[in-house]
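Please, structure for the following, as tokens.
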Amino acid sequence: MQRANADHAASYGADEYTQRATQKIRDLLGEQAQVFFVYNGTGANVLGLSAIVKSYNAILCAEVAHINVDESTAPEKFTGCKLVTLPTIDGKITAQQVDDRIQRVDDQHHPQFGAISISQATEYGTVYAVNEIQALSEVARRHNLYLHMDGARLANAAVSLNKSFKEFTTDAGVDVLSFGGTKNGLMFGEAVVFLRPGLAPDFKFIRKQGMQLHSKMRYISAQFEALLTDDLWKRNATHANAMARLLAQGLAQIPHVKITQRVDANGVFAILPEPTIAQLRQTFPFYVWNEKTHECRLMCSWDTTEEEVQRLCDTLAKLI
């Protein structure tokens, strides 16, 4: 970012940093990919979906999807669509669930389904296998729907699967992707990537209308260029995932702590004794996922240290 700030550059993405970062994403996802940089994850999700649905459509997603539980009413406001949620115990939805839910096609009294949205990794930190994404894509094609992927933690999923980005996105049948940067070390910035040709002719207008067009685009692009050079993205995500596994191992040794989800990526979900939560949060900021059950969401990042993980486990053990 300091290098990008050293001289003059063209605005609104007409700069060399944006050109290079765009090509790096195409190298990962295929030359057909159309790339648009935006400020944040909600903007990426909402505007990416806006480009592929109409206001009378419904969007199918998991009940715990970020677009449903953590983006306020932005998806409904900007798409005009109804979010139809599917129950899940691990954050993932299945092709069979989607197939069973699609009814009353061409009924003017019923919202018509326009897209399926999945998160990779999910809000529970679990990861879709390639065949699970392919199955969702197949049911989407059968019902003339689009498949959107919220990839806020896409790098963590790639490391968990030990697959290239292309294998579980473009090749698996994803149409529109929110390519996450912030959760993998960027100061700010995400990308909306259209993987199926012909979906983005008007997106530059949608991005502008949605207030996600950065005049000094190079400050987002320069970060993506650095992240996607020499596998920095992979090193960051590999470390974050490893710290989550270490945390899960430590928590599993503490009495009265119950880990509730498989640890695929960089998140650990655990039920903690209620009296310890407020005290623990004074030192370690984390999110209480379910206030009724005291299930907590403990996220590790590219800069989490082994010492921090050990200190949290030691502190919790002492509190208990």
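The chain has two domains: 16-229, 233-319. The chain has a mean pLDDT of 97.
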